[in-house]
Amino acid sequence: MTMSASILKRIIDPQHGGFSPEHARYVLSLDFSPEQRSRYADLADKVQEGNLTDQEQAELEEFISTSAFLTILQSKARISLKKHNPAA
């Protein structure tokens, strides 16, 4: 499933916070594992060389989509924490 970052951004509305501090901290803790990061880097190298299979291209697109989703969600989490602690 490919997600449109612009649609997700409108749904999640990262500029308006809204997460509890606990939820925001949890969202900020989400990340790719070292193995996933390594695989993502391998795929990025292969795309630069023009050597991706169709299956690898689909996998890379999933990484990119997931990364965009996580970035939007974590933006909302950061704004939520700032609203709960404006001095930070």
Walkthrough of the structure:
It is a single chain. This protein has 88 residues and is mainly alpha-helical. It is built from four helices and no strands. It has helices at residues 5-12, 21-29, 34-49, 54-84. The N and C termini lie far apart (37 Å). The mean pLDDT is 89.
Features:
4 helices; 88 residues; elongated; mainly alpha
Task: Provide the helix percentage.
Answer: over 70%
Shape: elongated
**Alpha-carbon distance between the termini?**
37 Å
Proportion of strand residues = under 5%
- Report the strand count: 0
Given as residue ranges, the uncertain stretches (5+ residues, pLDDT < 50) are none
Q: How is the main sheet built?
A: none
Total DSSP helices: 4
**Mean of the pLDDT scores?**
89
- Elements, N to C (H/E): HHHH
> What Rg do the Cα atoms give?
16 Å
Q: Quickly give the structural class.
A: mainly alpha
Concise synopsis of the structure shown:
The chain is mostly helical and 88 residues long. The chain has 4 helices and no strands.
SSE layout:
Layout: H1 5-12, H2 21-29, H3 34-49, H4 54-84
